[in-house]
């Protein structure tokens, strides 16, 4: 029997598989597609995802293939500058195509021992008190202790376990593709700048190899978005909005997306869980989708590993939904708001002009960017220090950096007093005695996902908090 089956080999599923393997969990990833998709839906990583990669020792790989940007405009395309004094050591956006992100995460998961099976479509599943049975299209049956659906907005797993997916259907649709153009780059830039004064869902971006990424509103909402749009529709819509089709030719791939907004009623049904787009879908405004899924996996991985390993305290696995459902709900709300602000109707345009004035205030600008980049997330751990429930930024220590100490996916007590102990939890929590000029508290207990579980200097108080996240003491 496998410990965990992950259905879906996109960024969420691959990140989850790697997180599970850090703890020795036997994991198999199954994906119905025979090969990774060439379609580039997401274009980069936001601050929190960059931190996640740093915490797991992956950031250098991503930096080799990406480009750092400190540009504004992420909230509804409002022309605000990148805010100063963000609470992070990585104050930038990393531009990197999703295809490369998928490849790097797949390599990481396989290096850690995950098994990836492509061309394997899930068609049925059942569960009992001991495990889950997954049925594949070729008749193969796989047995596991848990199964996680990371299989996208049309999730087969979600449908098979009967989880509702309430929300709003798509009202508008956008065409997306890569193709070459037949006019000079200066002409493209001038026309795009003029169109985008009123239509924010329009753009042509050079990819650096003769091709452009083209985004343009569609004619209407299709009945089946799994069917790619015709190239002629791209040209027709470009002419409708820009007065020219830019001489586009030689399409590499064509796709479409809508603005449907939905969230799963539950993230867990017994031994089956949902993550990423299988748990929530929303418009791509602000570039949050891929990042939200990676962060779901980062939250779930260590908790599910603890359950498989037998040391999870009661309620730990259910805290995945308790923490991540509100985060996704907030993303759904901010993308709804952004879509309204991108409308060409007079009312939304009036609100947009007002908000454009407000984002000139540094605090407003920072607040919106912290929301988009997810560094403003705070889980509800109860009353306590202002750091409690927040993720800890990377800080410099006398002997290195905090994030360098988190590569193994374990808990960590950063102790500046030298008087504390995690005896009884040393198999799950590292104890680091070191000091940082950037940290003005005596000690912090960090969960494997980097969120602060305790702040203080009293040993008895620490002993009262450790069991909540790391189970019973041993020995």
UniProtKB/TrEMBL annotation:
Q: Which InterPro entries match?
A: FAD-bd, FAD/NAD-bd_sf, RIFMO-like
Q: Which residues form a coiled coil?
A: none
Keyword vocabulary terms for this entry:
FAD, Flavoprotein
SUPFAM superfamilies, A to Z: FAD/NAD(P)-binding domain
- UniProt xrefs under Pfam families: FAD_binding_3, Rng_hyd_C
Gene3D superfamilies from the entry?
3.30.70.2450, 3.40.30.120, FAD/NAD(P)-binding domain
Q: Name one GO molecular function term.
A: oxidoreductase activity, acting on paired donors, with incorporation or reduction of molecular oxygen, NAD(P)H as one donor, and incorporation of one atom of oxygen
Domain FAD-binding, by residue range, is 2-335
Which cofactors is this protein said to need? FAD
Protein name, please? FAD-dependent oxidoreductase
Q: Which organism is it from?
A: Streptomyces curacoi
